[in-house]
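Tip: read the tokens left to right.
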């Protein structure tokens, strides 16, 4: 399958900027933790920089673009394939 999806340039640019930040910042944070730093810095980054809300916006942007191209049912099938965090209790 080699189809194109038209996306809003501003939204796509914001998505890339956020992904760049996440990759660079998580690399730095995890390197610090790996070198003996306090693991709480990961929580501080996630909460302090609003990652859950920002990632939800990114998912909405990508999901809306995909849904427009492949339909809601196909998008839901993709979402159903995701393995999320499982509590280890």
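Filled-in amino acids:
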């Amino acid at each position: 399958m080699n189809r194109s999806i038209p996306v809003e340039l501003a939204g796509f640019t914001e998505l890339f900027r956020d992904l760049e930040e996440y990759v660079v910042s998580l690399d730095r944070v995890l390197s610090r933790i790996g070198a003996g730093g306090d693991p709480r810095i990961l929580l501080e980054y996630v909460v302090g920089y609003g990652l859950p809300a920002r990632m939800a916006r990114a998912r909405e942007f990508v999901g809306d673009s995909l849904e427009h191209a492949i339909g809601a049912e196909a998008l839901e099938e993709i979402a159903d394939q995701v393995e999320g965090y499982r509590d280890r209790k």
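The helical segments are 9-34, 40-48, 51-70, 72-80. The CA atoms of residues 6 and 52 lie 26 Å apart.
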